[in-house]
Amino acid sequence: MKTKKIVTFGELLLRFSKDQHLRLTQGDTFVSKYGGSEANVAVSLATLGDDVSYITRLPDTPVGQAGAMTLRQLGVDTSHILWGGQRIGTYYFEASAGMRNSRVIYDRSGSAYSELQPGMIPWRSILADADVLQVSGITAAISRQAADATFEALDIARELGITVSFDINYRKNLWRYPGATPRATLTEMLERADIMFGDVIEFEYITERQAPLFNATSADFHIDLQPYREWFDLIHRRFPRCHKWLMGIRNQVSSSHHTLTALLWSEGQLYSTRVMDIPGVLDPMGVGDAFMGAFLHALRAFPDDCQQALDYSLAAATLKNSIPGDFNLSTDEEIRELLP
Predict the structure, then answer these.
(1) For the segment 221-253, what is each residue's pLDDT rounded down to a tens digit?
(2) Cα–Cα distances in Å, from 149 out to 56, 120, 152, 176, 302?
(3) Distance between CA 266 and CA 264 in Å, rounded?
(4) Cα 7 → chain centroid
């Protein structure tokens, strides 16, 4: 029997950056790449061999068409993309270097996606042969209309019995439209989720509770699980529908040296994995999306082994740090080679 497809929904972005760690104010040439959280997840899944459809709204211009073409070349189904609007959303990324932190500047106002409204996407036909819908909090941060369109997708997915996978993806600089209520909106989205991913900062934001300190500088770091176990139990009582909680935990030792680990709470059990020491970070953008994409794949590849699924997700996210751009193009073979 053919495995049902995974559907991801979000805004495709055009990313501009400078080479050689130049500041945005230096040099004359920008390098452009396509990305965006849900597109990143879709590419990860397609690279790993999954059947995945990506839903967004793009302007019917050469720039929009090139974005869709990029996804198709990487194996993502783009046949349900909605065409309309005047411009694609963009962001500018300044890479970190030495003691200088990275910087992101968004330019998404008035994008084709920001004008999306409920009723524009035929969700029932799109989800007819799907069993997972992946969304993130970014979709609700762009505009009130985009938030309403996201809730429409979530509610139809629930009605059809489709698993909802949700990445918190809280970006405080995006919530600018009149009447925006980020914590309340993200909480409403989470109440509809079956699977959730976030980093420690996002978990802190949703729960208004401080996380235990993670200051690993090497792979020898020992993490105390008890505070996290209590935290996850508390979260699950608040959001009982969600039965799998995946948390990525990172420490930035320096701009090019990170440590990374992950936890998974599933059906009352807490799973942990090793700490990965990553001394040569090339591009940290999309690491969380690499976590999410690999985890959704692993739930199918190892349906009865939560520990294996967690280890697989961490390995994929670790490899993403070595790949420039938003997309994680690590293969299943490469990920498995990094498993403990």
Answers:
(1) 999 999 999 999 999 999 999 999 999 999 999
(2) 11, 8, 5, 17, 33
(3) 6
(4) 13
